[in-house]
Amino acid sequence: MSNPMIQLIVLAAIAVFLIIRLRGVLGTRDGFEPTRVEQRQAERDFEVIDGDKAAPQDEDLTDHVDPESPAYAALLAMKQVEPDFSLGEFLSGAKQAYEMILVAFEKGDLGEVRPFLAEEVAGAFQGAIDARDRAGQTVDVQFLGTRETALAAAEFDTSTNQAALSVRFLGEMLVATRDAEGKVVDGDASTPRKQRDTWTFERVMGEADPNWQLVATGV
To answer: Which of 11, 26, 136, 203 has the most CB within a 10 Å radius?
Structure first.
């Protein structure tokens, strides 16, 4: 056998050896194996923390509530019953309700806001209005705006689907209470008054009626 032939056989053997080594180190691709980028993306999508798949956080809730708080867990349970519920939209509606109810109370006419008041709250408000009327007092009121609206607490009863959300408000208004002769006996028609309140609203999640009712008031 000639030397060129021997050299060719040796080179072929070396090439085969190198191919086998490379296949052992790099592996093979069959056309369906994911790329490294695809593999990393898959790892992120199925990342495991403490043995459990990490659940994505709800930004509608985390914008207003600590995700480690009991309130966050209660709100998540509410959304399980009513997926369309939005905390941001609720707080916006609660702010509007706060302004409407305060002005209605100060003016002494609960007619338009009565559907949003629980019986006990409506009775307390009406009692105060009636007492003013008996004393011959009237109220001048101008609402200047709500400076703060923030969730204070959230509770959810999974057996009844009853939700309770407490909201902290800071309102600002001009209020002057006048006696029967028109003399100011409380407040000031020219000096704004700040008012802090914490109101609790309740509703059964999943029901067709979207309205929340004011069930408690406090500071």
So the answer is: 203
Cα 193 from Cα 142, distance rounded (Å):
10
Q: Which residues in 36-183 belong to E strands, given as ranges?
A: 48-49, 52-53, 138-157, 162-178
Q: How far is C-alpha 15 from the chain's CA centre?
A: 65
Question: What is the distance, to the nearest Å, from the Cα of residue 211 to the centroid of all Cα atoms in its chain?
Answer: 17
Q: What pLDDT digit, counting tens, does each position of 6-32 carry?
A: 555 545 555 444 444 434 433 333 444
1 has a pLDDT exceeding 90: no
- In single-letter form, the type of residue at position 71 comes to A
DSSP 114: G
User: Quick one: pLDDT at residue 48?
Assistant: 40
Of 25, 30, 213, which Cα lies nearest the Cα of 121? Answer: 213
DSSP secondary structure code for residue 117 in this structure = B
CA distance 108 to 218: 20
Q: Which two tokens stand for residue 34?
A: 């994911």
> Which residues does residue 146 pair with via DSSP β-bridges, in sequence order?
171
For the purposes of burial, counting CB atoms within 10 Å of the CB of 30, is it exposed (0-12), middle (13-18) or buried (19 or more)? Answer: exposed
pLDDT, the chain, mean: 82
Report pLDDT digits (tens) over 56-74. 788 999 999 999 999 999 9
What residues does 145 pair with on adjacent strands?
172
